[in-house]
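User: structure tokens for this one?
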Amino acid sequence: MYRYDRYYSLSNDPNAPAEFKVNQLGLYAMDEWNVTPQLKLTIGIRMDVPLMPDDPPNNPAVMAAFGIPTNHNAGGNMLWSPRLGFNFSPNKDLQVRGGVGIFSGRTPYVWISNQYGNTGTAQARYRSYYPDFFITDPFGQPDNPSGTATGDINLINADYKFPQVFKTNIAFDKKLPFGFTGTVEFVYSKSLNEIAYKNINIAPTGETNAFDGRPLWGEQSTSGGARYGSPDYVQPGFYDVLLLTNTKKGYQWLLSFQLQKEWGRGNMINAAYTYGEAKDLFGGTSSRAISNWQYNITKGDPNDPELSWSTHDPGHRIMFALTKKFNFIQNAPTTVSFFYNGRSGRRYSTIYYNDVNGDGRGNDSIYVPANADEFIITRGTWADVNKYISDDPALDKYRGQILPRNASRDPWYHGMDIKLSQ
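Assistant:
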């Protein structure tokens, strides 16, 4: 039993590339104001406008089926980014600095390229979950026999805006005895226009999974069958139809402490500790819309994921660096450097091998059994399963529940480097 899945070009170019042009206009104004000898303000505002003269190809069939045009582009939306920063030094030993503002990163046009390459006019797809053929010739694979079925479609919301975050920070720098400087800093950022994806060609069937209550989106798969289920497409003439839109959900904060000192010529000691948290809806780690949607671990509704731990959640971090210069040989100093970096392990999820909600993807977070009566064990014993759950703090915490995305962590990481230069 296997699944056949093939993408192929509908044009003379077998690669069917996404081709488009982008012009970006940016304007920035800034002023510094010395309010008093101790207080300085920095005020600025930035405006960015991505201009895209080329529209994606028009596919009237998509407009008729979903009411959203394929030839809409993301250009023309102005991004305003006001900022305010301050620096206050009440005396020679203390500095207080901080700021607040809206920031836009480098525009990820690779996400926009999906809307140009996947309109259903340049590529087609033939997917069969239980085909009655098996052809070994790689150049003789069959096309889709249906005259209406197209490949995946990528759409963009009419008022889509490129990612922006609200960010604020405050820090205290204090000169300490023995030549040390101590710093305490807090940074907080909140998503304003973060990416979000929806597959608008799937919808819940109204039924739920028998053992954990999550909604079903089609025929689910089991351990004895194929890995992936078969979704009930809203429009059977299309496969996955991904809509790129925005969300305001998501945040990150960091609190750090640092102690540092420099002395002599080339001697330095620096120690720091940081703790932070980050949560989001989508990691946005892929260049493809389908990958950003299908690999996003979900507890139930893949089109409305819950705010959960980000893949980039920092956790704890300890850093220590020391550089010391010795004059063992005249006019040829010896420098010894030591660096240590320790941090929390990276976040990860525990998922089912099968497609338990029938959306055609293997991105379903597991239900953590509370006791041996909640599932059937075919290999091993309940003691084995119970120990596995107990050894993972996240699994142990969510017994009797569906595990949130990225709830678990790898073991603590330690890294050390020593450098000797002559």
